Each structure stands twice: as structure tokens, then as C-alpha cells.
Amino acid sequence: MNYQSIYGPGLFDGKVFVVTGGGSGIGRCTAHELASLGAHVAIVGRNQEKLDRVRVEIETDGGSVSTHVSDIRDEQTVVATIATVLADHGRIDGLVNNAGGQYRAPIKDIATKGFEAVVRSNLTGGFIVMREVYNQWMADNGGSIVNMIADIWHGWPNFSHSAAARGGMLTLSESAATEFAESGVRVNTVAPGSIASSGLDTYDAKDTEFIQKGVSPHIPLQRFGTESEVSAAIVFLLSPGASFITGSCIRIDGGAPNARRGWWDLQPSKNNEPFNGFHRATEPAILSAAGNKETR
Asked: Which of 113, 142, 154, 260 sits at a 20 to 30 Å CA gap from 8?
């Protein structure tokens, strides 16, 4: 069984895409879907072992992939990585700026060093990759960039460092959409909410109950999203069908920002089935342990 994409086979034949954070979670899923549609995917990450596992998976499924160890926070490494992709594959048609991460903490407990580290991972690093892909290839050849943000609307308590960085990435992307338009480069963002990906298992044990029981009841669709549902939005924005879309954001959050406590009591949701196109997807351990149907 291969990836069950909603898009037509061969959509990206002959295309080359760079996916940062491609060794796990949403990045891994997106790399699989792009490869299943005919693209060569250059997956970028800090951990060679993780990248190699994804490479074996994609190649086993018949896809084309290369691995590139790089820390997006390190400017010179990023410059060299993009140059290597171009030297090896001759083009970069799209960038999925997915790498990043955060931890849960109130503002009063966040050290300046910790704040700056999250901003560098989720904003500065993404800026460096986007700039290099543009300067080294897309300025002369066009392309599409999709930057990852998050459900930051109305603020993100306990994740203020990431909210600040993701908000910056949103406005950076909106700015780049205008500046890069002369080269035929489209720049958009996707904003996942609570997604059942391996990233959930990276949080500290103190956050387990919050993730298991405190998230999905406050989402109108009453569940976590899937990696496939995020990837489908990313693939659309990279596709010819989105040729007139730039400077926009697609939310993938089950309506979470629209739930206004005190104005509407959320009811159990029905007739909404998760889309699971990723044949190699596994449920995060933290949700499996919960044994709670509404978190799936």
C-alpha cells in the first residue's frame, strides 16, 4: 500500500521539493505525499538517523528522495545545503519550511535564552532557508514556498515564545509574497492546530494530562487533526491549482479559534471523519495511552 493522496498521480513529475524537518511528523508525511506524486524530495533535518529512516520508507514505496543534514538555525550550513540540492538535482520548485518546535511554559518562567532559541527555530531559521532558496534559484526561475505557522489567533498562552515567532513568520510570509511576486514566486502559510503527530510525544511528562484531556473538548470538531490533513493543504498550495494564491494562510485546526466560551457550548461532533491518507502514520504514544476516543 502506498500513500493515498487526494491528488492525481504524476502531479509533480520532474519537480524537486525541499522539506525541512522532514525526518518526523508533518514533514515526514508531506515528504511521502510529494514523493508519491512524482517529485524528488530533499528532506532536511538535524538527525541523520531519522532522515535515513524516512529515506528508506520513501524508496521502499518507489519514491525519489535525498537526505541533507542541516540545522536551519546555522546560516552557513543552510547556504551550503541549498547549494548541494541544486548541484545534485538542478532545480528547486518548492520549499516546505516545516522545521521548528517549542515547549510549554508561562511567560514568567521563560528565560531570555529559551525565548531566543524558540524564535530562532521557528522564525529566523525559516527566514534563512526561504531567503537562500529564493536567492539561489527561485529569483530567476519561480517557485512556491509554504511556511509553517500554528494556531496563534488571539494569542497562545503558555506558548508565547512560539506565538511570537509564528506571528512573525506569518507577516514575513505576507511581505515576501509581495516582494517575490515579480519572480513568479508564491509564498503562503499553513496554520495547524492540534495535530496527532509525533511532535506531541516530545512534550514533558507534566504536559501529558493537558494534551490528552484538555485540548480536543475545546475544538468544535472535537478531535485532533491528522498529519495527512495538513499535508493535503501544503500540497495544494504547492500545486498549479493554487497559482493565483499568494500571501494567504490556510488554517487546519477544526475551528478552534472560532470557539468562544460563554457564547456557545460546544456539542459532540458527528459526521466528520479524519482523513488518513498516510499509510505509514502511527498514532502518537501520548494519545494511544489516553484511550480516549475523542482525542483520535
From this structure: 142
**Letter string b/e over residues 172-192, b meaning 16 or more CB atoms within 10 A of that residue's CB:** bbbebbeebeeeebbbbbbbb
Cβ 212 vs Cβ 292: under 8 Å = yes
Q: How far apart are CA 27 and CA 72, in angstroms?
A: 14
Task: Provide DSSP, 69-132.
Answer: E--TT-HHHHHHHHHHHHHHHS---EEEE---------GGG--HHHHHHHHIIIIIHHHHHHHH
Give the per-residue pLDDT at 203: 60
The predicted model scores a pTM of: 0.91
How far apart CA 220 and CA 254 sit, in angstroms, is 6
Please report the pLDDT score of residue 200 as a whole number.
Answer: 64
For residue 36, give every residue at least 6 positions away whose Cβ sits within 8 Å of its Cβ, in sequence order, or none: 2, 3, 5, 61, 63
**Around Cβ 267, how many Cβ atoms within 10 Å?**
8
C-alpha–C-alpha distance, residues 105 and 112, integer Å: 13
Task: Please give the Cα distance from 208 to 85 (Å, whole number).
Answer: 39
Coil vs helix vs strand at 189 = strand
The pLDDT tens digits of the residues spanning 150-208 come to: 999 999 889 999 999 999 999 999 999 999 999 999 999 999 998 988 666 666 566 56
Model pLDDT for residues 230-256, shown as the tens digit of each residue: 999 999 999 999 999 999 999 999 999
Helix (H) / strand (E) containing 197: none
Q: How many CA atoms lie within 13 A of 136 on its CB side?
A: 22
Amino acid making up residue 42: A
pLDDT band, residue 293 (cuts 50/70/90): very low
